[in-house]
Design a protein that fits this description.
283 residues; alpha/beta; Rossmann fold; 10 helices; globular
Length: 283
């Protein structure tokens, strides 16, 4: 029987661990604090931000909410970020994406101090990840590695295939698996003979952005499958990039959608924020 990797359980474990760390910091007079900036009224973004506030409250992180109208000028947002960069009581800064069309997302992300960039998107943190220097790692890829570790799945020496090359998931996931001594192949929409590549993989990370794209024909017997995708099917039910029912009997372990990778993203955000606050402890 394949192992269903329980993201909800593992995410809760991480949040409980961060709650203990937050209590330790508070005992030393350090109150972990994350500033969350939401521009506009995108319903999905509002839901995500609400979930992050709930997690902060549970862990013991002060959550500062900055809700700006869609018409906010880019310069006004950059001024707010500059103020938060200078605020010693704020350890993490998160700007909820996507931003309104008149704003330059790269410019906004680059304005956040790398030492407060709890999303791990700043080029400095990307460079740190590439060179093996300590820094913030994007939350979804970090969550993937935690899912594997805490499920007893060995990465070292294994052949790993990542489907997708986004800056948020595919590229950093590949680098993290490489850091864990996996042998990594990154594939994408232009990859030829994709099925031949995925069929030799011990671990497949599916982040292609295409619902039920990965079927059993893409996998070898006993593969571990991490499904990053999240979509609505024809019946308005959530599904991933992997056809769960089709591949289930062929894999040794798999993440469900929902309840797999998605819940880990917020848990790792809590981890990053606590890590930022711990740096103050060392100063």
């Amino acid at each position: 029987m394949p192992q269903i990797i329980d993201g909800k359980k593992i995410a809760q474990e991480i949040k409980d661990e961060m709650k203990i760390e937050a209590d330790k910091l508070r005992a030393q007079g350090i109150i972990p604090c994350m500033a969350v900036i939401l521009v506009g009224d995108d319903p999905a973004s509002a839901v995500y931000v609400g979930g992050k506030r709930k997690d902060c409250a549970y862990v013991g992180i002060e959550s500062r909410a900055y809700e700006l109208p869609k018409t906010t000028a880019e310069e006004e947002l950059l001024t707010l970020i500059a103020q938060l960069n200078e605020d010693k009581n704020v350890h993490g800064i998160l700007v909820q994406l996507p931003l309104p069309g008149h704003m330059d997302e790269k410019k906004v992300i680059n304005a956040i101090s790398p030492d407060k960039d709890v999303d791990g998107f700043h080029p400095v943190n990307v460079g740190r990840l590439c060179t093996g220097v300590e820094g913030f790692v994007p939350c979804t890829p970090a969550g993937i590695v935690q899912l594997l570790h805490r499920s007893g799945i060995k990465i070292e020496g294994k052949e790993c295939v990542v489907i997708g090359r986004s800056n948020i998931v595919g590229k950093p996931a590949s680098l993290l698996l490489l850091r864990e001594n996996g042998t990594v192949t990154m594939t994408h929409s232009k990859t030829e003979n994709l099925m031949d590549i995925t069929k030799r993989a011990d671990i497949v990370v599916a982040a292609a952005g295409r619902p039920k794209f990965i079927t059993k024909e893409y996998l070898k017997k006993g593969a571990v499958v991490i499904d990053v995708g999240i979509h609505r099917n024809e019946n308005n039910k959530l599904c991933g990039d992997v056809d769960f029912e089709d591949v289930f009997e062929k894999v040794s372990a798999i993440t469900p959608v929902p309840g797999g990778v998605g819940v880990m993203t917020r848990a790792m955000l809590m981890y990053n924020c606590i890590s930022a606050a711990k740096r103050e402890e060392l100063l």
